[in-house]
Amino acid sequence: MCFFWKIKAKWMPFFVMCFSTIMAFIVPDSINFLPTLLSGMYVSWLYLRYFQKNPLTGLKGDPSDDFSFPSLFPDAMRPVTDPVANLFDRMLCARSKPSEIALPVTDPTKASRRRERGERVLEERMAADHAADAEAPAHSAED
């Protein structure tokens, strides 16, 4: 199978950086633009990751693991990119973990309604799972 079919779209920034670096050494006078290109890509990612305001949630940035700095590189580079990304994440941004982020609720009545609605939905899902589990052995016994 061809190597190019295994390339993921999320690694495109990595390949653009590699291609640009190679071309900067081949094409005369383009080496002057390489620092601008590389820092521009990093600053763009930094803005999207930590500062862009999400109109739906009102939170800043995209704290998901799918948009972490190491996810922009192939998996073989993770041992190198993970410690570097964690170091700069702690030094520059001091972000909390995505699991610690809660949606802001200013009105206590809205908070209690959300909590009750969540409990109701959870109970319905658990009841549906329990009913499905109870039916599964009955079907296997009939076979």
From TrEMBL:
Residue ranges crossing the lipid bilayer per the database entry: 9-27
GO biological process: retrograde vesicle-mediated transport, Golgi to endoplasmic reticulum
Keyword Transmembrane: yes
Location of this chain's protein in the cell: Membrane
Domain of life the protein comes from: Eukaryota
Major localization class: membrane
A single GO cellular-component term on record: membrane
Keywords of this entry: Membrane, Transmembrane, Transmembrane helix
Biased composition (Basic and acidic residues): 116-133
Bilayer disposition of the protein: Multi-pass membrane protein
Compositional bias segments (type: Low complexity): 134-143
InterPro entries: TMEM115/Pdh1/Rbl19
Region described as Disordered: spans on this chain: 103-143
Keyword Membrane tagged: yes
Protein name per the record: Rhomboid-like protein 19
Protein source organism: Aegilops tauschii subsp. strangulata
Organism lineage: Eukaryota, Viridiplantae, Streptophyta, Embryophyta, Tracheophyta
